[in-house]
Design goal:
It is a single chain. By secondary structure, this protein is mainly alpha-helical. It has a single domain, classed as Four Helix Bundle (Hemerythrin (Met), subunit A) (Up-down Bundle). It has a two-stranded antiparallel sheet with strand order 1-2. Helix 2 packs antiparallel against helix 5, helix 3 packs antiparallel against helix 4 and helix 4 packs antiparallel against helix 5. The longest helix has 28 residues. The radius of gyration is 14 Å and the shape is elongated.
Length: about 120
């Protein structure tokens, strides 16, 4: 399975090995978990806890990779690197852009999730 929408490739990912039913489940779990993760990112940003933000970026990179959310994964990599460098403005911008990227991924996966 391969689908391109909003600059996002869904290939079944290594996690699901092309099993569409399993991919749906993994994506559903991602969307159940992400609101809490976004709250954590906001709080860490407000606290200027760059060490934990870098760890958060690393964790998000893995979560996004599991569901083939390429744009979110790239953002997570950038967040991890930027937080390591304690670039306050860039970190705020990246954390602020996460909800929009999650929404884009939600729209891009609607056919897979409801399929």
């Amino acid at each position: 399975m391969e689908k391109r929408r909003a600059g996002i490739w869904l290939t079944g990912s290594k996690t699901t090995d092309g099993n569409l039913g399993l991919l749906r489940q993994v994506i559903d779990i991602f969307f159940e978990a992400i609101p809490g993760q976004l709250e954590i990112a906001d709080q860490l940003c407000a606290d200027k806890d760059y060490e934990k933000l870098a760890a958060f970026g690393h964790k998000l990179k893995g979560l996004a990779g599991d569901v083939s959310a390429i744009r979110i994964r790239k953002l997570a990599i950038e967040l991890e690197e930027t937080a390591d460098n304690t670039d306050e403005k860039a970190v705020e911008s990246l954390v602020g852009s996460l909800p929009d990227e999650v929404e884009l991924f939600r729209r891009a996966t609607v056919d897979v999730r409801e399929g």
